[in-house]
Amino acid sequence: MLISPESAIVESKRAYLTTVNDLEAKNKLVNDPATVGRVQNITGRLVTEAIKKYPRSANWEWSVAIVDDPETVNAWCMAGGRMAVYTGLFEKLNLTDDEFAQIMGHEISHALANHTAERMSVAMASSLGVLAVGIASDNRGATMTGAALAATLALELPNSRTAESEADRIGLELAVRAGFKPGAAVTLWQKMGSVGGSPPQFLSTHPSPGNRKDRLAELIPEMSKLNPDGKLSPIHPVQIIQ
User: Fewest C-beta atoms under 10 Å: which of 71, 124, 183, 200?
Assistant: First the structure.
């Protein structure tokens, strides 16, 4: 680990603001009320459960940028609760609310489990030139620029199998506790595996659907006991970046 979870949150915010400002300049942020409401309600219920399980995340600046890109099947969550959803998820996969909750629960789990800091460390290790300049010159600005860059690069790096399995389990639990159907974890990956054309960008940082849906299916009986009545959680206020 070359960067602490706390530093990962700080640098992720810097990278996130740069990203959303660029999207705003290109008029790529969605403000359609129906889409905004759907994303806000589902992620808000997941965040409610995330905060219950990980109280330290109560002070995170939970937010979502909905990106107008119907060809991109992707979503992510940075350290500190800063998320993005691409409209291609809905266009290409025709997601149910339960399936969308599985995606966002999984992505939120990566942030909760400090996987962002792990991937940032990998990105920084593979960009030692930038890091070395900052250290050698004792220039904090240069080092932090490298860290913010690593936060962006980390979004494109795959997680380890251990991290993916951990996020699968935590994400499924968050979704079920929030009131979403556990079986959607299986149908989601069935859909993900049937997307035509080039593989979804989402799969560039995730293992192929293959055995994954089988492993998730094994967890369903256990997870179903957590919220047998499917009671929906309250909606935590999540900012939609517009």
Answer: 71
User: Residue 80's domain spans which residues?
Assistant: 5-114+157-241
Whether residue 90 is contained in a domain is answered as yes
CB atoms within 10 A of CB 36: 15
The values of phi and psi at residue 147, to 5°, are -70, -40
Distance CA 195, CA 163 (A): 24
The reported pLDDT for the residue numbered 205 is: 53
Q: Which residue has the higher pLDDT, 172 or 131?
A: 172
169 within domain boundaries:
yes
Which residue numbers are catalytic?
Answer: 107
**pTM attached to this predicted model:** 0.83
Paired tokens of 212? 């994954």
User: Where does 113-139 have alpha helices with state H?
Assistant: 115-125, 128-136
For residues 109-130, average pLDDT: 70
- How many domains in the chain? 1
Kindly state whether residue 122 falls inside one of the protein's structural domains.
no
pLDDT digits (tens, 9 = 90+) for 45-54: 999 999 999 9
> Strand, helix or coil at 78?
coil
What is the DSSP annotation of 9-59? HHHHHHHHHHHHHHHHHTT-B---HHHHHHHHHHHHHHHHHHHHH-GGGGG
Whether residue 38 is predicted with pLDDT greater than 70 in this model: the reply is: yes
> Is 186 part of a structural domain of the chain?
yes
